[in-house]
Amino acid sequence: MDPSSSPSSDNKTVVTSSHLSDMATAGQSSGKYYENLDAEVAGKIQRKVGLIYDETMCKHDTPDGEDHPECPDRIRVIWEKLQLAGVSQRCVVLGSSKAEDKHLQLVHTKDHVNLVKTISTKQKDYRRNKIASQLNSIYLNGGSSEAAYLAAGSVVKVAEKVAEGELDSGFAIVRPPGHHAETDEAMGFCLFNNVAVAASYLLNERPDLGVKKILIVDWDVHHGNGTQKMFWKDPRVLFFSVHRHEYGSFYPSGDDGDYNMVGEGPGEGFNINVPWDQGRCGDADYLAAWDHILIPVAREFNPDIILLSAGFDAAIGDPLGGCRVTPYGYSVMLKKLMEFTHGKIVMALEGGYNLDSIAKSSLACVQVLLEDKIIQGSSEAYPFESTWPVIQAVRKRLCAYWPSLADELSWKLINQKIPNPIILISSSDSETEDDPHGLVYQISKLSIENHQVDTASTSWRADLAKVDIWYASFGSNMWKPRFLCYIQGGQVDGLKKACVGSMDKSPPKEIVWETFPHRLFFGREYTARWGVGGVAFTNPLANLNDQTQMCLYRITLEQFNDVLCQENALNLDSDSAIFDLAALQSAENQISILPEAVSLVCKCCLVGEKRRHSHTYNDLHAFCC
Ligand code: Q9C
Ligand code: ZN
Question: What are the sequence ranges of the domains in the chain?
């Protein structure tokens, strides 16, 4: 916790710090969530990436125009994004195709195919509404049949071209989505199971293409119940789904998405579910599932092609998903799949309901398929603590079929702490160019000069109350309800006991989610000044290419003091601040300071306690003394 800064004439530095005592080694042992997977573009033959988009699929809409998350604009915004970014122009754009009934009937009953086919033709709205009302989460209109046929047919077409080798990979930007659709039932916004139809087509109708083993990866935030059932007993298809499950309470609810559901008969072991017990999962959780389940299994399975049920409703900002996967996270997940099948990957859109998120995530993925330089970014450093038990349970349940899952995960890996909040305090005037959102500028304007703090004063609270700071955190740790407990008091899920809150219970003046230019140096295990423990500094102006999503709370230095006290189990009603106010002030007075030169000393150390404490949350001692 280090509110300090090192202003210099030409280079404003916002110093942030957090306890990072095990961060330096974590990067190596945990699968390197900060790694850069730059693809060498120069000298490479451009990969052929197919795209299908057809405005006709926008005609599927709610019958009387009410709002619905699964809306026509979903595919429009993706298509527009790819065009605006100049990416679609470098792809092979194919016309859409209607699925053939005989292909649909590889996975669906004749009745179901007929139902979907006849929805639009002869029936009136009220008839359609009646049918829809008997289904789970389905609306139907006059455009539904055609859209459903085009969605399924387009995924089949891209899959065929990729399997033939005419394309290296492709993305079918389709709706309605497919993965909830079962053999004889539409549900969950899905009419035909587009990906399952394509998989079955390759396996059963096109033996000439030599596709014998298919890996279906379903990263939609919901369980792919339909796809699971269709290949339940089929060892030719390895189905992997990662989804919110919450003990069966999350849509589509029930036990189907449980990790015990591994397939049956010859298909036993060829169905893998990674069921999150909670929302809010982000890049680190997904990448942990990749590194410790999917990737090793895929290596053993050695598929001929990968079909990706690419819903983007686990994306940050999604109104239904509640998770926090960033475009960067998606791009890394996809990149990791490119090692297989010579990159033969067929992406099909499933869910995803935040238009901005799905457009950005889609763009990031197509750039991976094109083997562009991967977008810059970084993820929260660690998965949630609750993620490891899930991953361990999945590995244990499936290790009989996949020996690469048999080893126990190392203690070191699973006991990594989630990253601490990062504290930003800035002073100094600064340049404001290259800061379109104005956030860096705003931060730079937060100054503690003119707020002389009197170390001898008993009115330290009044002094600190005059100073605003930005408290920043990576998403998963100080999520808003939790952070608000530290300010306003109370207890939410994940807090061991209730917080008393800050003395000043006024809510943060601003709460901003921002993709923030930053650079983190998590590099130190020891600094002369701060002793054992890592530190992190950000230099937003010098490293504009590095981006991370952070949540920033504008609070007063007094509130910050109280947050720290609560995190470290110290009393609030103390007669001094947790900070060394003299250090804070002298930091302010220096013109150019090396980060190491600035330090705030925590109270336990001021009273002569030299032993390193083991606070579960904020090991303040990691960087004081
Ligand atoms: N209580 C896809 O993402 N939610 N489908 C219904 C009823 C349905 C999501 C909630 C969510 C379906 C493809
Ligand atoms: Zn979904």
Answer: 49-406, 463-602
Using CA atoms, how far apart are residues 341 and 165, in angstroms rounded to an integer? Answer: 11
Contact in structure between 606 and 620 (CB atoms under 8 Å) = no
Decide whether any atom of ligand 1 lies within 6 Å of the 220 Cβ. Answer: yes
Give the nearest ligand 1 atom to 178 CA: 13
Ligand 1 atom having least distance to the Cα of 320: 11
Q: Is a pLDDT exceeding 50 seen at residue 8? A: no
Take atom 5 of ligand 1 and give the residue whose Cα is closest: 188
Contacts of 36 (CB under 8 A, 6+ apart): 374, 376
Tokens of 395: 């590995």
243 in catalytic set: no
- Ligand nearest to C-alpha 69: 1
Bridge partners (DSSP) of residue 65 are none
What amino acid is encoded at 358 in this protein?
Answer: I
Min mean pLDDT across 426-435, 470-479, 527-536 is at 426-435
Please check whether residue 622 is in contact with residue 532, taking contact to mean a CB–CB distance below 8 angstroms.
yes
Rounded to 10°, the helix 125-133/110-119 angle is: 140
Q: How far is the CA of 180 from the centre of ligand 1 (A)?
A: 9
Tell me the pLDDT tens digit for each residue of 81-138: 999 999 999 999 999 999 999 999 999 999 999 999 999 886 678 899 999 999 999 9
* Per-residue pLDDT tens digits for 584-593: 554 444 322 2
Report DSSP letters for 132-150, one per residue.
HHTSBS----TTHHHHHHH
Residue nearest to atom 8 of ligand 1 (CA): 188
Which residues, including other chains, have CB under 8 Å from residue 16's CB and lie 6 or more apart? 2, 422, 423, 424, 472, 536, 537, 538
Structural class in CATH, domain 49-406: alpha beta
* Residues 510-527: tens digit of each pLDDT: 777 655 444 333 333 333
